[in-house]
Amino acid sequence: MYYYRRLPQFEYVAPGSLKEAASFLQAHPRETRVMAGGTILLHRMKERIGVKKYVMSLKAVPGLDAIDKAPGQVKIGSMVTIQTIADAPVVRRQCGLLAAACQMLGTPQIRSMGTIGGNVACNLATAEIVPVLIALDAQATLAGAKGSRTVSVEELYREVRDGEFVTEILVPVKAGQAWGYEKWAMRKRFDYATVSAAVAIAGTGRVCKDAKIALGGVTLPTRRARRAEEILKGRSLTNRLIVEAAEAAAEDARTGADIHFTAEYKKELIKVMVSRALKQAVSPGKEG
Amino acid sequence: MKQEMEFTVNGEHYTVRVDTRRTLLEVLRETLGLTGTKEMCNKGDCGGCTVIMDGKPILSCLTLAIEAQGKEILTIEGLADGYTLHPIQQAFVESGAIQCGYCTPGFIMSAKALLDRNPHPTEDQIKEGIANNICRCTGYVQIVEAIQAAARTMKRPVKRPMKGPSRKPGGGKQ
Amino acid sequence: MSAETLIGKSIPRIGSVEKALGRARYTGDIILPGMLYGKVLRSPHAHARIVNIDTTKAERIPGVKAVVTGIKDTPRGALFGIIPHTRDHLLLPYDKVRYVGEEVAAVAAIDEDIAEEAVSAIKVEYEPLPFVLTWQDAMKEGAPLVHEHRAKNMAAHYLVHEGNVEEALARSHYVWEHEFTCEVASHALPEPFTALCSFEPSGKYNFWMQTQCPFQVRQGLHNTMKVPLSDIRLHSVPMGGAHGGRSDTPPGAFIAGLLSRKAGKPVQIKFSREEVEDAMRDKAAKVWRVKIGFAKDGAITGRDIFMMLECGAYASSAIVELWVPLLIDEVLWRSPAYRYDAHLVYTNKTISSMMRTRAHVGPMSLDVAFDQVSKELGIDPIELRLKNAVLPNEVVPSKSIVTSTALSESIVMAAKKAKYSQKRGKLAYGRGIGIGSGNMQAMFYMGFRSGSTAFIKFNDDGSCTLFTGNCDLGQGNVTLHTQVAAEELGIPMSTIKVCYGDTELCYQDPGNYSMSATVVSANAVKKAAQDARRRILETAGDLLDVSREEVEQKEDGRYYVKRRIGKGTSVSLGDVCRSAFKRGKPVYGFGDYRARIDYSDFSVDVKQPYNEKTYGQKVTAYSFGTTAVEVKVDTETGQVTVTDIWAVNDCGTVLNPLLVRGQMHAQLSFMLGQGLYETNVWDEKTGRKLTSTYRTYKVPTANETPRIETYTLGIPDPDGPYGAKEGSLGFGCGLHGAIANAIYDAVGIRVYDVPFKPETILKLLKEKEAKEKRKKNSG
User: Fold this and answer.
1) Superfamily of domain B87-153
2) I need a labelling partner for B66 at 20 to 30 A (CA). Which of A23, A260, C147, C343 fits?
3) Which residue of B has its CA nearest to C707?
């Protein structure tokens, strides 16, 4: 049994351009870990999980750390830190759901170091921002040797190929969107979400035109609570309907037990989080 | 693999050759002898190794030293003016916020980052500001009181205070 | 004597400035010339026979200076255990490994990377054996034996029976019974275990390491290394937390010693966080079954307690867990008939040992009982408590006298401050209030732990150095001892420097163990200061040409002849010290304090189911206190939040309110964590602990901390210095009972298993709802 304090051996590369990064990754797709903020990667490497020959840092690649307002969307570079997003006036104004979720992620240190790209790419329980981006219909730009392409965040893990990495997140700005975000964690400001629910509702008054509900703490195929969304569409968001949708979301969600919580309890939590997030969307500012 | 790097720590300029797999924590403690920054968990869970890099609180155990190239670092050793304690340090001493003292440098650096960002934090904002820091001896009440006391005595920057994190993400219409 | 007393003054902790500056030098900050870095290879098996250890490859790695294994490098049969009965622990085993993370071999190398590489190059051949992780499994017929010489994995048994419990219960008006459990808890100490050893060619081992009991650790090293006590020196260093977790002789120090001797260089071993949590100490999981008889008027008639404790892999010091719950439980509430039947059972887990909160299941069981029985008997729960609360000078079942207690006062005050009676049963659904009491023994009856000796020597200018074997864990013992010495000597605290916890320079002290620092160590310091004062007055008398009795110290700190009119001649302390030295009668002070403890009747014998020699004065002083809490229960998720705590501390005279308050917050934070958040989990397949990080072992953060109001009663204890007794543990041990009662008040469900997990609470809430629905439908 080995207990390490030091990082393992690896070679550190820090390409100075997107092109250089893409070609390095193309050349060593299976031997390279791409590092953004490093909070997740270095933590895992100290536990000797997922150690590869190279660590390719994106810190020296220019242009990945900007937030830009474009027509109909906000573009967020993959190296923008979670805290920068939470603080950015344009995000707070145009994508309140994302700003709120970023502010609720981790701690001041983690938010100052961790990046949106890293959070999206890690595909772990710590990726609290992913359900939020799915609910917002966000897209991710992937860079590769053959140039870049854009995929929806929802499809990201299915889509991403060896040699590609995330360079940008595109969040559409939708007028009249109501939203809610709830996460449950034992220590609410320290722990990553055991489960979470992000909802985005389009509509006027209480009638829901369209709804997106995305979940954290569930298996990939059940990230979207599609049946719950259908229940809401075209109907008035009464408490009874919200409970019905939340129950459907929990029923469909596939959760797994972890060392502290059973799969059944997580399902129960999903129901509560979805219902509270929906109530939040209906009555902004009120306790769920 | 070793590389040469330059950075500024507590106002001193350093040029060092570091193994690229060294963390900033290791280089601060072992290469520069700045042992005030503590290792508790070595994996970012405890906040004991918090330092301020370019104005932001970071976990030096999860930062590769090489990535501090060109950065400005502030550690616990850089806060006081000789033997005159920084108001946060002074408040920690007077409020009984220090017992074993091992987590103290991390708490003080988190508090510094918080007060730089938000000179007038509420109690909840203080608690959120030290959410990454674990203490086992003092509890947290006297630490929060120390940060409140420090906020009162510190010279306030003229900058308008930033809106801190809200307790509840009030949903909203856009 | 200076007019103003230091007793009761809020004096900031000595040493805080260094800590605030980042200049306090902890063990891991020390680098000695030529120092090597040690690394321990640990067992991946929960239980296995060590067949062979091949270190040849590791030895050949450039930079490796020493490799040690149990079979090659340790004295045969040198077992660690704090009493003969529990000498079961080879600090570097060569026969078997008994838990995941146990030490198997170690290396020392010129840097840590090489050391890490080298341990990976050691090949160990194991013969894996079946293992047991719970006491229930460990006691099953045919269960694998952790130690072959202990049948049924029974490590030790302890029984006290006073009066006839069966009869008392049979005659009772009402008998309440229930089973309570608590899980294994961890100290989660901030500073990872670090040991630095420098072996000198003369044969002496110099250690720098965290310990709260340097003399006890020296004894353990002496027993296992087989060298004279004078060849082991523990230097004093500040340490990052202790809380009971640094009471033992750690294998890591033993191994650092072996490596340093072999390599001929100083060796530092620094554990990783996971190593600390897997291979240091935990608090035992407990099952506590209690039957309590009540008379019609609410008086307890008898209590029958059966306790099972999970010892972990070695009973070496876990034996303490068998005794301490008794020392607490038998005291709080009067019980004419009493039986305490406790069993310590081996398991293949991390070793259990001391922890500041270890005794909480006992107090909780009574508080939960009072809450329920008050309804049955129609007696107000506060009245019920007051009826049974122990009073000063009462004798507990095992025959200790409780010399001071303000338990009743603490109950009344906590209830009043929290507005308990006004709120109970009247808060909105989901909100509730509860109350619980606790206590702690100060100093108990084990061998050399009973007394402390202090010494003060003076310099020519009147400044002095105080020597005490009692070390400072951060709780403020140096401040305490300085304050006491300054008070007695009438000199400024700044002129007293304390040399503490160094086994070569100081006299023996029990260590920070069983809350003995205030009652025992500070009393020794007080006596040393009084002794010095006598000598000072004597020399001053000589100088002033009067007898000692005619000398007095005035507010300016100088010594005068008593009752002399006008200013008169005077001498300073410096004059006294210089002149005393010249006269060959240097000023010093020697003080020894022995606790009021009866040793004659103590023994533990596993062969005897009942040992009649368990009676007598076991404890010098008892502290008490009561906490009231308000909780909020999220009825949809089952999560409980404590929103408010009112804590009342019966810690005798308050010597330093600032420090006492800090200790109270510390204890409440520890108790809160164990009550609501912290839980340890083992992998049933591998026997590995899965909760070895702050992420997985969920200690509370600032955001889990409720509003807390702390109060002290200030009723003096006859033995404590100036009437003080321990102030950091006892008062808070009732917090879990208070939370359990508050949960009932909030949502009408009863919880008996600590921690109170959201999932369990949600399940109980659903059961209750279903039951209510059924009732409604049928009704």
Assistant:
1) [2Fe-2S]-binding domain (1.10.150.120)
2) A23
3) B141
What's the pLDDT score for residue C359? 64
Q: How close C306 gets to chain A, by Cα (Å)?
A: 29
pLDDT at A287 over 50: no
Q: Give how far B157 is from chain C: nearest CA, Å.
A: 23
Task: Assess A258–C contact: CB distance below 8 Å, yes or no.
Answer: no
Element (H or E) spanning C412, and its range? Answer: helix C407-418
Range from A156-165, B56-65, C148-157, C242-251 that averages highest in pLDDT: B56-65
Q: How many residues does chain B have?
A: 174
C-alpha to C-alpha distance for A67 and A88, rounded to whole angstroms: 8
Query: Chains A, B: CB contacts under 8 A, how many?
Result: 126
pLDDT at C616: 76
pLDDT at C3: 56
Does C273 contact B128 at a Cβ distance shorter than 8 Å?
no
Q: Do B98 and C16 touch (CB under 8 A)?
A: yes
- Residue contact A176–B174, C-beta within 8 A: yes
Q: Residue A75 and residue A71: Cα distance in Å, rounded?
A: 10
Query: Any idea which architecture C282-445+617-770 has in CATH?
Result: 2-Layer Sandwich (3.30)
Write phi, then psi, for B52 (nearest 5 degrees): -105, 125
Per-residue pLDDT, averaged over A184-201, amounts to 96
Neighbours of chain C (3+ CB pairs under 8 A): A, B
pTM listed for this prediction? 0.96
CB-based contact B23 A174, cutoff 8 Å: no
Same domain, residue pair A166 and A181 = no
Tokens coding C42: 């640990």
Work out the minimum CA distance from A206 to partner chain C, whole angstroms. Answer: 24
Residue A199 lies in a domain: yes
Using alpha carbons only, give the angle C265, C270, C274 rounded to the nearest 5 degrees: 150
Contact B42 A8 (CB under 8 A): no
Task: Give ipTM to 2 decimals.
Answer: 0.96
Residue of C nearest to B19 (CA): C113
Architecture per CATH, C31-129+190-242+246-279: Alpha-Beta Complex (3.90)
